[in-house]
Amino acid sequence: MTTQILNKLVTVVAISVVFAFTSCDNNQQFDKYESTNGAWKKSDVKKFIFEQNDTINPYNLFINIRNNSDYPYNNLFLIVKMSDSKGKAIIDTLEYQMALPDGTLLGDGFTDFKVSKLFYREKFKFENTGNYSIEIEHAIRENGKIKGDSLLPGISDVGFRVENIN
């Protein structure tokens, strides 16, 4: 078996294990991924829409990233826009550590495939009921360069998750 086939097999098994663990999750209110087809284009803004009917209880909001060893940076910069049903928007520029200084990827998973569950908002209370929209785009650029990277290799999926706090 070639190394490439073995890596693909390990990736499929890792994805299956992740789905098995997340499918039995009682805290999940919303959890969805969008594929990047192996590399995230700057122009490919990931959008998630979910309905929220609870304005009393707090929730934890996460950005989920599936990446592999093709990811060339230690950090990930994101621009996230959350809009409520009344048009109010919150825009954040966020930085997450994705690897150690020696290049070892952080996150859960096997071999070179990792899943990172990144806090976006902790104990967040929604102000209004109705549909909420989340837009996520990467804002990566090399040190010393003004123009951002148009293609970010090594990111296979971007997700958004809303969890009940028990």
Walk me through this protein's architecture.
The protein is mostly beta strands and 166 residues long. Helices cover 13% and strands 48% of the residues. The strands form 3 sheets. The protein has a 4-stranded antiparallel sheet, with helices on one face. The protein has a 4-stranded antiparallel sheet with strand order 3-8-5-6, with no helix packed on it. The chain has a two-stranded antiparallel sheet with strand order 2-9. A hairpin with a 5-residue loop joins strand 5 (75-83) and strand 6 (89-97). The longest helix is centred in the N-terminal third of the chain and has 21 residues, at 3-23. The N and C termini lie far apart (46 Å). The mean pLDDT is 87.
Q: Give me the side-by-side strand order of the main sheet.
A: 1-10-4-7
- Measured between the Cα atoms of the first and last residue, the distance is 46 Å
Number of strands: 10
Q: How would you spell out the order of helices and strands?
A: HEEEEEEEEEE
Count of DSSP H/I helices: 1
Largest sheet descriptor: 4 strands, antiparallel
Strand content: over 45%
Describe the global form: globular
Q: Which whole number gives the mean pLDDT?
A: 87
Radius of gyration: 17 Å
Contiguous low-pLDDT stretches (5 residues minimum) are none
Proportion in helices: 10-25%
Q: What structural category do the secondary elements indicate? A: mainly beta
